[in-house]
Amino acid sequence: MKRMDEGMPFLLQYENVAWYEDGKVRILDRRVYPREVRFEVCETYQEVVRAIADMVTQSAGPYTAVGMGMALAAYQVRDKAPAEQSAFLRQAAYDLAHARPTTAGRYGKITFRCAAAAGAALEAGRDPAAAVVADTLESLGRRYSTMQLVGDRLADLIPEGGTILTQCYGETIIGTLIRAARRCGKDFRVFCAETRPFLQGARLTASCFAQEGFDTTVLTDNMAAYAMEREGIDLFTSAADAIARDGHIANKTGTFQLAILAKYFGIPYYVTGIPDVDKRSASDIVIEQRDPGPVLTSWGIPNTVPEVKGIYPSFDVTPPHLISGVVTDKGVYVPYLLEQYFDSEVRDFY
Q1: Catalytic hit among 241, 291, 316, 329
Q2: 182 contacts 7 by C-beta, under 8 angstroms
């Protein structure tokens, strides 16, 4: 099987996302990268669920982690009767899919397909864990190759020598954009909003671009207006954790306010990703509410007196009138016409 992570940054190499081997799943702990390169080792699929919920990996990382978690689930019940194995795998598929509520539909496509692959392997007398790993690697290849089409189109939208602003960590899109830019010899500056409270923009997105030789600058989330006004931002872009058919998108909290600022300054905002077949409107998007602890601290050090409360909505929803286009594998769509994406065959992305 041809691997599709060639030429990708460290963070996007398959083994550096999540990897199953010898009854364990290793997940790169993105909460501490790049200060520390550390892997969380999970010995049960339930520990993989917890790792995803605790944001050991996030963005598109869980798409790999849930698949590898299903391989671990198959290993956990390897000595049980076939009926018990099948029931256990169905439960694991549900639990892993619901590790985070906003993206449960996307995760479920992977986990229930993995359960089916394990079931077929059981019937054929083959190793179900190996079958699930093979299925997950095929899924990775599909996702990376599909997102390369998106990255190619996004690269076309960035002017040579221009400047872009990013939000949070677009995972595969970041890698495929870098690969597309390198292939066509295009260079540009990158400003990364830090993305409090987990700082994915500062730690992950900025690392990828800087390590691949791009002029990369981090700014705090409240410096975006300054940068848009004075730093020559040509384009604002983000991935999306959910893209509804009516053009609303959900992404890391703070995306909505950046989109408003971009509209004010006349800067186009391009969302990247694949529309969700199961989300027809903004009302179908569930906003995950997380423990507010990280909002009130920096690396575990309290920033407030004990009486202060915090809120931590993991995502916010940006309406279509603030979005210049949704960049997909099929083309760039006006958000109000996103339903047209489904007029032709939709490739198996997951």
Answers
A1: 241
A2: yes
